[in-house]
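== Folding the chain ==

***
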Amino acid sequence: MNYTFSNRMSTMRGSAIREIFKYAADPSVISLAGGNPAPELFPAADLGDIATEYLHNEPVLSLQYGVTEGYTPLRDAIKERLKRVENIGTDNDELIVVSGGQQGIELVTKCLINEGDTVIVEEPSFIGATNAFRSYNAHLAGVPVEEDGMNLAALEKVIAENKNVKMIYTIPTFQNPMGVTMSVEKRRALYEIAKKNNILILEDNPYGELTFDGVKTPTIKSMDTEGIVMYSGSFSKILAPGLRLGFLCAPREIVAKAVIGKQISDVHTAMLPQLLAHAYLTRFDIDALIVKMRANYAHKCATMLSAMDAYFPKDIFYTKPRGGLFIWCDLGHNLDTGVLAKKAIEKKVVYVPGSTFMVDMAKPTSTLRLNYSTMSDEKITEGIRRLGEVFGEAISG
């Protein structure tokens, strides 16, 4: 039987990160590839107690269908925290609980993007988002990212050169994959550019809480007076990714349409994870948990950077994040990190080639993404040492 796939899916490629996970499952392999949070930070015992309580005392609430918008007490708790921590939320905003931040991105795309519309993305950018846009046959236009965020001169040029620009997608804080943070000045300027050109902004902020020094940069959504910014948030990095909980805060009209889109996709987000998140937000100190995460990731990032200073060839460029989970490297020398990844696998270490995050994923690149959140100090250092050998051999020829 020959199967003919839809135009939307026929050209889609699977995530290279997920393919790399097959190698990372081997315990002898040092994985510097994924974006998983550190499992030792999961509040598993507390969540287990909450789950037992709800399943015993509230089995119908826990296991029955829920409303598409999300469990109302959880929505209220998220709104309160967004207002307190991020200064997000106006009378024109509403919030929907979604099955991970990825679904929020997909719902926005489903509701707003027609085939052929242009979505402007940072380049490099998160493959989950770019694939969501690709799956609706959007035209992707990339804007280079500098160490203080998107190149705004290039952004204005891309806007001028493309038709039907509907949306700008950005991860302004501890960007995936580069780990850089957009300056406050650029955030304000980006907002003004979008407002001037009647373009929506989708601000994705799964890493914003993970600032090493505790200092937070104002979100673009907190600057929104015109109802042009949609804000995607997640519990994956501050509670546990397996709960598959995220939220979308956006103008009411957009959220109302997203509710309909979600009804088509999965009816509602699973109730038990919502109950777990609500109970944790209201009974426990999630801010104290986040402080532990910040310290853990700051230490691991410093460990990786120290190893890179010691073992990488001296002319390799790499970012020095102030938070989040990722470091971005550029080997230069016209090297192809997709090819070098195979040599790294031979040495039992894996990373993500930079092509994964580009608009043209087939084009070779000398860049790559490293993650430090899940490995021990010893494995981080040894993994970097092995990569230093691979990269050094490739550069020397």
Summary: The chain has two domains: 7-43+288-396, 65-283.
